[in-house]
Amino acid sequence: MRRETLWRLAGVAAVVGGLVDLTGPLIYPHLTEPARQMVYVLIDLLLLFGLLGLQSAAGRVLGWPGLAGFVVAVTAVLLVRSSATNLLGPQSYMIAASLWSIAMAVIAVAVLRARAPFRTSAILWIAALVIGLVGLALKDQGLLHRLAASSFALASVALGVDLIRQAKASTGDDA
After folding, report:
1. How high is the pLDDT of residue 60?
2. Disulfide engineering: 46 pairs with which of 7, 13, 30, 125, CB 3.0-4.6 Å?
3. Residue pLDDT, tens place only, 161-173
């Protein structure tokens, strides 16, 4: 498979995952528990594909900080999906989700330092972490939590768009 094809597929996955994540609060109340868990798994899988595309497209320029953020982010996704086991204690989900957000902020800093073409995503990932930390400090699990989650999801949409653009630019496609 050509790398441009991988970037396109990863880009589509990131866009779809981000959009499903954004619309989730409207969908979840209408789903039974097994179906809701399947949507969560689908979102995380699609976001993970987007992350793999980012690493493929920009891994070299992001260097060691980007690679470290990538490894921690992938680990955090797995911890989020296994949080029901309480591997990290009763707050397993919150710890894993926080770790994922921190890892994405590390990648974001690497993107900004390298002046890589994923700056919108980087800014949104940093915003998600900052908003989440403010919400945690204020013990706000409502509006600020939703804003942080929305910023994180929008970062994935922006990542997907940038991956698709990079694939087109690399091949010279206009379609």
Report:
1. 94
2. 13
3. 999 999 999 887 6
